[in-house]
Design goal:
The protein is of the alpha+beta class. The chain folds into 2 domains: 79 residues, Glutaredoxin; 116 residues, Up-down Bundle (Glutathione S-transferase Yfyf (Class Pi), Chain A, domain 2), CATH 1.20.1050.10. It is built from 9 helices and 4 strands, in the order E-H-E-H-E-E-H-H-H-H-H-H-H. The longest helix has 27 residues. The protein starts with a strand and ends in a 7-residue tail after the last helix. 33% of the residues are buried. The chain binds glutathione. The site of glutathione has 12 residues, from helix 3 and helix 4.
């Protein structure tokens, strides 16, 4: 299997975490591609121009990180990250919550690359609102995360938080007074404690050593 992705070990990558948890990380061939690189080859692989994606051994592609995660999890002979039964829907909701927070953070960064005078402020404020709302929802539910089996919702929330932790477009773009010192940790003590603990799990602490 070929994983097309944008390697950056400064934040947690949900596909790598899932591959590690499923015990299939050694079955992946890594193709590192930056979708925004000026000479990117990403379009050869996907009409969507996005990473991550997976190409199966028979050549068929899977688009999007969440689908790739579910496929990798299906190969696991151990505990599954995608629960079945009643627990599934809560895990999937938290999965989308964390992943959509990641997307909103990424979109703020992409828009923020334009000159300030060209920013679409209504768009940026909308994405900022999603980031903050997702964090508050996580903070409101975090007491349940601790006692439940590790699942894909935890992976994606930790991934979204770690991206915000390292990139922080709210702080960088300073749309509102106080944003210049924004930290997702402020007043979210239980979420901070959960995150600081979960990142010690081997699959999250794992750093890929890519042969270049
Ligand atoms: N939540 C999405 C995130 C995908 C994503 O935003 N990937 C970026 C990686 S830099 C990308 O390909 N951006 C290119 C674009 O949006 O056109 C997923 O897991 O598939």
């Amino acid at each position: 299997m070929k994983l097309i992705f944008n390697p950056d070990d400064s934040y947690i990558h949900k596909v790598l975490v899932t591959a590690h948890e499923a015990g299939v990380i050694d079955r992946l061939d890594f193709v590192a591609l930056d979708p925004f690189g000026s000479e990117t080859q990403i379009w050869k692989y996907s009409p969507l121009g996005k990473s991550p994606m997976l190409i199966l051994d028979d050549g068929s592609p899977l688009y999007g990180g969440l689908q790739v995660c579910e496929y990798l999890d299906s190969l696991s002979s151990g505990a599954r990250l995608f629960p079945q039964g009643r627990e599934r829907w809560r895990a999937l909701r938290l999965m989308v919550l964390g992943d959509a927070m990641f997307d909103a953070t990424a979109l703020m960064r992409v828009e923020g690359r334009r000159p300030r005078a060209e920013w679409h402020l209504d768009y940026l404020e909308r994405e900022r609102r999603k980031v903050l709302g997702a964090l508050d929802e996580m903070a409101g539910e975090v007491s349940r995360f601790v006692g439940e089996p590790f699942h894909i919702g935890h992976v994606c929330m930790a991934g979204g938080i770690s991206y915000l932790d390292t990139r922080n477009p709210i702080k960088d773009l300073r749309l509102f007074p106080g944003d210049e010192s924004f930290s997702w940790r402020a007043n979210r003590h239980a979420l901070t404690a959960w995150y600081d603990r979960i990142v010690l799990r081997p699959s999250l602490a794992f750093k890929l050593r890519l042969k270049r």
